[in-house]
User: Fold this.
Amino acid sequence: MAKNSVIIMGGGMAGLTAAALLSKRGHKVTLLEKEEKTGGYVTGFTRDGFYFDATGAFLAACKPGSEFHGIFTELGIDTNLDFLPIPAIRNIYPSFELQLDYRNPAAYVESLAERFPVHKDALAAYSTLTAKLGRQFLAFEKAPLWKKALIPLLYPTLFRCARHSHGTILDRFFKGHPDIIHALSALPTTLPPSQLSYIFVAVLWAKVLKDGVFYPRGGMLKVTDMLRQAILDNGGTIHTGQEIRAIRNSMNKVNAVVSQDGTVYEADWFIGAMNPFHGQAMLQGEAQLYGKVFNLKRYTVSPSALLFYVALPAHALPADWPYFVSLHTSDDPELEAQAIATGIYKNGLHLVITTPSLLDPDLAPQDHHALKVLVHAPQASIFAKEFPSRESIDKLQLDIFAVIKEKTGLDLAANNLFTVQATPQVLIDRTGNEEGAMYGFDSALGQVGPGRPPLATKLDNLLWIGHYNRPAHGIVGSALSGCFAANIIHHK
Ligand SMILES: Cc1cc2nc3c(=O)[nH]c(=O)nc-3n(C[C@H](O)[C@H](O)[C@H](O)COP(=O)(O)OP(=O)(O)OC[C@H]3O[C@@H](n4cnc5c(N)ncnc54)[C@H](O)[C@@H]3O)c2cc1C
Assistant:
């Protein structure tokens, strides 16, 4: 196999994974990251002995044999990572509460059937259809072209359901029962059922729900650090503080990229692992990353997040407080999504409160906890109009802490030792994500599977990876895109 020199632009989960695998396979890799630290969204920070994850709260596909775990196995770092299973997730809605069990699809459906016994049969039918669609979609993705052409015959469920939103399917099974519809919408996405692609849900069932969800001992930063170390141990180079400003290209090929201090980096292959709108703007002349079919302008990016990192004495947590609490203040997921998209929070809030020190006590001083409140937020420009000043964000923090106290008894305002805030603008400043998008492109209809921009661009030696691209958003989706890019280059 010919060994290539490869420049990777962006050191988030996608870029780190591609760089680590290519270095391990003997290629000459240089990773360029604009920040002083690698990791992108998957990072963390320590203050006064409390460790906080900057963004994410859970990982999937962490069991031996799964695709994500396979990356660590190939790199020989799997034994250094300990994935702690996340027990049931507490979901709080205005009129009811439920513990969702994410260990596998059967446990998930059972936990729902316990709360909604009258829907037991409909739940069974819904889960059978969802599991079948997931299996058919994954098989279709790997099928040769002749099989794909026979989609109505060989993949009938996929053929029937490909263009449906999750809302259409939920209505088919549960119309007129908003509680169970809301409960079944508790997925790692910011889209309401009417906009969410049903294929996305099915793939989640086939991949994420298959083996449960996990938290890495040592925090999310541990995963990033292990990948970073694997790059260095295998002879790769990492330059931090190097922001790419231009991509030099001619005759459908990239020749070099140029950083803010004028350094020119040349290579055989280039991988963009950051916001593709920025990549498009850096190309010279008429060059297009994707041309007409995957024209970036047709895609919508996901909403953003507002984060509060809170240090607490252990006695402040109510008894039986779990690692993961998901709190909704509206009865209707469609209204909730509208409220989030516009920042009109009086119409609906969705909060995710996680306390990693409950799973890994080393993340906080003894008898203390490090807790994170993730508030789903509008895109950065809308958020800035709604909450233009420090005072308005402090007021929002007080309002949100009051909601948490009212719904759960946890009094963050009275007990916090300190609270650090991160707004959607902070997410942009740290990573360059479009409008502070949590998940790159949304998983809306037409933006999942074959509708999502591919890794191959219009330039012969330029691949694009990360959560705007295939296969999907999230930490695992981005890592897998890095893995696919490494495979493409390695097998050329
Ligand atoms: C609040 C929040 C919570 C989340 N929770 C979860 C979760 O629980 N589970 C989950 O699976 N996913 C979660 N996600 C989503 C997940 O974190 C992302 O989908 C994933 O990490 C994206 O990785 P990436 O490598 O594609 O992009 P990024 O992490 O954005 O990395 C891009 C990198 O490129 C660098 N860069 C940008 N421009 C340049 C340039 N010009 N030159 C050089 N470098 C550049 C950036 O600094 C950054 O390091 C969450 C996201 C957020 C915001």
The chain is about 40% helix and 20% strand. The mean pLDDT is 95. The two ends are 8 Å apart (CA to CA).
